[in-house]
């Protein structure tokens, strides 16, 4: 077969973009070469519907071992009692959980997208807001911290079946124990979606949701530094409290309902090449080397927040406990959209993001989100964060000046060349 130079040239262009830019998108990271190798392996050829030892296809003796290793490593990493590593993505993991525990029309209570939540937590444009009846809590305007009072009031008044915590753009710790205590008052389940801070939670740098939340979902590609994918976990298996029955009329333990909601509920064949890459990433995350890395991610985020504050930028909640922060541009006379575009021209990648109580649309926004997971994988330390913020500030102070942007772009190249990628 003739080599597909069209696609491989584009892949090389993307490698070049990643190598020469400053990657600050909070949901991205740089996986190891062995994660890429596993993801690009012959396991992509294999169908394996079902679970290890219980497949609907022959020839699964090898992939069974791969998937079992992924499950065992994930359990060890998070101290989980049960794990399903098959969800193709974070959104798929959340859809499987909702299929397992809810009926169409049931109420769910999630963190408002416009305050930092995720689409799959009840947004009207997503399945979660179309199939279920969404209710929301947000942050307190003055502090930028989760409005636990509103969460409790809404939960007690509306009695949702599921309370969802977790976010895409929230830089602070969560009070999982409090949310569980509210859920217990109304017989609701709690889902913690730890897609963003999963790596920090795995290494004990943030509170552990597993003892408090019935179900935990995560992506595997953000701070966890694995391939793109999702996963569902539980700290302990429990009986389905809503008495939901399987299509055969049986009442089953939650683990069985969740497994069935992944396959055949929402997916077909699992991606065993990606599951192998997840296993490799979990193996890496179990090492002390990863522990040092993820601690540095947090230290770098705190150093970056300090540097932004010193330059007069607002940060929602005033700082960060994890790997990301939401920069508030309302005092800077520039929109998130313009900031993202100008920074991109200087090879600095961020994403525009609404800030809580934003008066601008999601396409314009008054803020942007940054994270330190990717630049820390390149080896940057807290002493480099000042330089990073200086470069951003120079672009934003003069966002339409092409000369400034060109000068910053050259300095970005200089800076990142000291932290080579995939060499
Ligand atoms: N949940 C949260 C909190 C997220 O931030 C994201 C992705 O950004 C997802 C779920 C969805 O993950 P995916 O893009 O893999 O579907």
Automatic annotation (TrEMBL):
Site (Plays an important role in substrate specificity): 221
Obligatory cofactor(s): pyridoxal 5'-phosphate
Gene Ontology CC terms, in alphabetical order: cytosol
Domain Serine hydroxymethyltransferase-like residue range list: 2-392
CDD domains: SHMT
Entries under Pfam families matching the protein: SHMT
GO biological process entries: glycine biosynthetic process from serine; methylation; tetrahydrofolate interconversion
Gene3D superfamilies attached to this UniProt entry: Aspartate Aminotransferase, domain 1, Type I PLP-dependent aspartate aminotransferase-like (Major domain)
Localisation: Cytoplasm
Coiled coil: none
Entry's EC annotation: 2.1.2.1
Signal peptide: none
Swiss-Prot/TrEMBL keywords: Amino-acid biosynthesis, Cytoplasm, Methyltransferase, One-carbon metabolism, Pyridoxal phosphate, Transferase
Enzyme class: transferase
Tree of life domain: Bacteria
Residues noted as binding (6S)-5,6,7,8-tetrahydrofolate in the record, renumbered to the chain: 113, 117-119, 361-363
Catalytic activity: (6R)-5,10-methylene-5,6,7,8-tetrahydrofolate + glycine + H2O = (6S)-5,6,7,8-tetrahydrofolate + L-serine
Modified residues (N6-(pyridoxal phosphate)lysine): 222
Record pathway: Amino-acid biosynthesis; glycine biosynthesis; glycine from L-serine: step 1/1; One-carbon metabolism; tetrahydrofolate interconversion
Main location: cytoplasm
Subunit structure: Homodimer.
Family: Belongs to the SHMT family.
HAMAP family in alphabetical order: SHMT
Stated role: Catalyzes the reversible interconversion of serine and glycine with tetrahydrofolate (THF) serving as the one-carbon carrier. This reaction serves as the major source of one-carbon groups required for the biosynthesis of purines, thymidylate, methionine, and other important biomolecules. Also exhibits THF-independent aldolase activity toward beta-hydroxyamino acids, producing glycine and aldehydes, via a retro-aldol mechanism.
Protein name in UniProt: Serine hydroxymethyltransferase
Chain's gene name: glyA
């Amino acid at each position: 077969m003739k080599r597909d130079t069209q696609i491989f040239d584009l892949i090389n262009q993307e490698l070049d973009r990643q190598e020469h830019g400053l990657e600050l998108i909070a949901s991205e990271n740089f996986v190891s070469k062995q994660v890429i190798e596993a993801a690009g392996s012959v396991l992509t050829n294999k169908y394996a519907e079902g679970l290890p030892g219980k497949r609907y296809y022959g020839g699964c003796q090898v992939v069974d071992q791969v998937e079992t290793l992924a499950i065992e490593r994930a359990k060890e990493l998070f101290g989980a009692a049960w794990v399903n590593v098959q969800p193709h993505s974070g959104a798929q993991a959340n859809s499987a959980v909702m299929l397992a525990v809810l009926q169409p029309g049931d109420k769910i209570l999630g963190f408002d997208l416009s305050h930092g939540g995720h689409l799959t937590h009840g947004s009207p444009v997503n399945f979660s807001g179309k199939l279920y009846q969404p209710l929301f809590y947000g942050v307190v305007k003055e502090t930028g911290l989760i409005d636990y009072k509103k969460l409790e009031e809404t939960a007690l008044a509306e009695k949702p079946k599921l309370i969802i915590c977790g976010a895409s753009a929230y830089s602070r710790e969560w009070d999982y124990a409090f949310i569980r205590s509210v859920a217990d008052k109304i017989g609701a389940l709690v889902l913690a979606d730890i897609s963003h801070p999963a790596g920090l939670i795995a290494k004990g740098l943030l509170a552990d949701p597993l003892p408090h939340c019935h179900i935990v979902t995560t992506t595997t590609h953000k701070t966890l530094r694995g391939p793109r994918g999702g996963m569902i976990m539980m700290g302990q298996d429990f009986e389905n409290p809503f008495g939901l029955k399987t299509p055969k009329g049986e009442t089953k333990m939650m683990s069985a309902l969740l497994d069935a909601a992944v396959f055949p509920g929402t997916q077909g064949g699992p991606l065993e090449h990606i599951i192998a890459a997840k296993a490799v990433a979990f193996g890496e995350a179990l090492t002390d080397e990863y522990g040092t890395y993820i601690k540095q991610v947090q230290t770098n985020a705190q150093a970056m927040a300090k540097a932004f504050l010193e330059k007069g930028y607002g940060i929602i909640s005033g700082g960060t406990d994890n790997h990301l922060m939401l920069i508030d541009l309302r005092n800077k006379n520039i929109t998130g959209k313009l900031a993202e575009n100008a920074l991109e021209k200087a090879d600095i990648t961020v994403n525009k993001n609404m800030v809580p109580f934003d008066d601008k649309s999601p396409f314009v926004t008054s803020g942007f989100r940054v994270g330190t997971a990717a630049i820390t994988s390149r080896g940057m330390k807290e002493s480099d964060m000042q330089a990073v913020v200086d470069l951003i500030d120079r672009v934003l102070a003069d966002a339409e000046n092409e000369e400034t942007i060109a000068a910053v772009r050259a300095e970005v190249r200089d800076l990142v060349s000291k932290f080579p990628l995939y060499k």
